[in-house]
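User: quick one, fold this
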Amino acid sequence: MKKILLFAALASTMAFTSCDESKDDHPTLYPNDGVIVENFLNTPEMSNMSVEFTPDNAANVVHMTCSQPSYGYAATVRYNVEVSYSEDFTTPTVEGLPAYATLDTPFYDCSEVNPTYGELATAMCDLLGLKSEKEVPTGYRDLYARLVANVEIAGGANLYPNTTYMSNVVKLTRANCTYLAVIVPGEPTGIYLRGGMNDWGAPAEWEFLTTDVAGVYAIDDATIEEGVEFKVADANWAAINYGYNGTDIEFNKSYELAGPDNPGNLTMPQKFTGRIQLTVKAGTYTLLFEPAEPETPGLQSGIYLKGDMNGWANEGAWEFITTEVKNVWLVQGVTIGAGDGFKVADADWGPINLGGAAGEVLAIGKAFTLASGGENITCPEAFTGDVELKIQGGAYKLTLIAL
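Assistant:
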């Protein structure tokens, strides 16, 4: 791994307490009260060297050294790197966001504290609250770094209490993150499941979305009937065109797709309802079909659709009923007038009292995310059909399904 020296003059002659010095036969740990700030991060002469963080150099590192704080002996110390755009680590760059970020990788060697460019880039994006590539700013910024040291209990990840030391602050001069280095769940990927269930098209509801794991995408709620053929492809059947590898699909088992040279169609072995996960790693595309947990259909849920159309009452015809899938309910064959207001609630307006977020508009046929205690939802046009309520991604979602 190539190490890039971002701090000038980090000479080996700088004195620091050896992390490997022999311990006394009966060492005594000196705890502290609260957090002590101590000058133990080696501070080099500051240079004007600029550095860009890119996807291609994410594995490069910034090399830092320190001396062990005063614990009384060479204890097993965990060092965590914290970074901020503000030198005092208390002023957030964006209101409402944290003032600093803690990098994921801990370090245990005083002479090898080496945060990667990738981790620093992620922290820079997090501190700015970036959610899309178009929000990535151009230009260089000063980034400040410090260490937080704690004594780790041998044989585990736990820390001794009252052993926290915080280092002095050093400046990483002129750093520039050139890409979105954070994973934003729920973003479109341009990759679709295309087949008989959607006339081999590329509609939004069959597009894989990002998850909170890099290279893992998902369609959270899908139904495909037995015998339906399909493939994984982009919207133009161009660079991405993956399918049958010569073996049959099995639920809850990873299926490595063949492609992208226009392989055969996949066939659903039996009716499927649930989550479809696509993993892309080192050029390999893998599908995983995870069936939803079954439920006994036709049971009362105790949750109602209440509004202008029924006098805001708990009427049986407007009670959500269980389906074959857990956490999916239906009110069937109802009519809601254009402009009618309504909400989703339990009988007593208790724990379940769901409406819309300010400014959000309901559309027929599209999932609408409900907000606890939210505003009345307005039906955009005269509607007759089924109303679906489901829990997806930890949120309640409502869909008006026209007949």
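User: anything notable?
Assistant: Confidence is low (pLDDT under 50) at residues 1-24.
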